[in-house]
Design goal:
It contains 11 helices and no strands. The chain has a single domain, classed as Orthogonal Bundle (MetI-like fold). α8 packs antiparallel against α11. With about 300 residues, the protein is mainly alpha-helical. The longest helix is centred in the last third of the chain and has 35 residues. Pfam families: BPD_transp_1. Belongs to the binding-protein-dependent transport system permease family. CysTW subfamily.
Length: about 300
């Protein structure tokens, strides 16, 4: 068998495997969307959930998911940015930096349920924060830090050394070169990583079951005082997210339309994750075009 025929066979096998993966993904997404989208209405997206009666929605759970995502990124992004800059620009190749990278790899491979149990024992029990938004946000920060740190480090390493040398040759300090030259050049990759990690955090459930809780108190959207018990912004209240709500309905839901609510919530969750992933691609390309002034 000559080399050309081997190459064609190998290429066909690769295309076949890729096609199988795409087919499985399309079938999975298609089933969830076809089953769930007919139940998604404006009332379903905005009305509170119902524990016993039919007709409940996912309004509070949807708000809780976005609020937890915002707090998680607010905590994790500055830490990840600092760690990524250190590892990419300042860290020397020695045992300490190798230990840091191994720690990041180990942390990224931890199951989310382990992170949730850690958050439960430390924040809920030891620090007495209870089942609350802040406990969930801190737990998700541990879950999000490795992915975001590695993404920022890789984005910074992808910047050409010529740009660093150009900044230094103009008399800029190393810190100025990093903040004014390297980080802006790496911004498309950083933004893409932030949005992709946001999609991963948004769909997380296991870690939040043990930290943010499985209950969703009725929120008063007219009260935006963060220290009030029924305020949406109160970080010390329990918060059932959309992913946790889906899990709860499928395990112990007793409302008459549990299957319809679960299907509709699953469709909304899938759409949100797809938007995050497609948005990451669009945002990265848009920022790149703006920075490079290319069309």
């Amino acid at each position: 068998m000559n080399a050309k025929r081997v190459d064609k066979i190998a290429t066909a096998v690769i295309y076949l495997l890729v096609g199988i993966v795409i087919l499985i993904l399309v079938a999975l997404l298609g089933f969830i969307l076809i089953t769930g989208l007919p139940h998604v209405t404006w009332s379903f997206l905005t009305s509170p959930a119902s524990a016993f009666n039919a007709g409940g929605g996912i309004g509070d759970q949807l708000f809780n998911s976005f609020y937890l995502l915002f707090l998680t990124l607010l905590i994790s992004f500055p830490i990840s940015l600092g760690a990524g800059i250190y590892l990419a620009e300042y860290a020397k190749k020695n045992r300490v930096t190798e230990a840091i990278r191994i720690t990041i790899e180990v942390l990224s491979s931890l199951p989310s349920v382990v992170v949730g149990l850690f958050g439960f024992l430390l924040f809920v029990v030891q620090f007495k924060l209870g089942f609350s938004i802040i406990s969930g946000a801190i737990a998700l920060t541990f879950f999000n830090l490795p992915l975001l740190t590695r993404n920022i480090e890789n984005s910074l390493n992808g910047v050409s050394n010529l740009q660093r040398e150009a900044g230094l040759s103009l008399g800029l300090s190393r810190w100025k070169t990093v903040t004014k030259v390297v980080v802006p050049a790496a911004l498309p990759g950083i933004i893409t990583g932030i949005i992709l990690s946001a999609g991963r955090v948004f769909g997380e459930a296991a870690a939040l079951i043990f930290t943010a809780g499985q209950s969703a108190p009725v929120l008063n959207y007219a009260n935006w005082n963060p220290f009030s018990g029924d305020s949406p912004l109160n970080i010390f209240r329990p918060a059932e997210t959309l992913a946790v709500h889906i899990w709860k309905i499928n395990t112990e839901g007793i409302m008459p339309d549990a299957s319809q609510v679960s299907a509709g919530a699953s469709a909304v969750l899938i759409i949100a994750v797809l938007v995050f992933n497609l948005g990451a691609r669009w945002a990265g390309n848009y920022v790149y075009r703006r920075i490079t002034a290319s069309k």
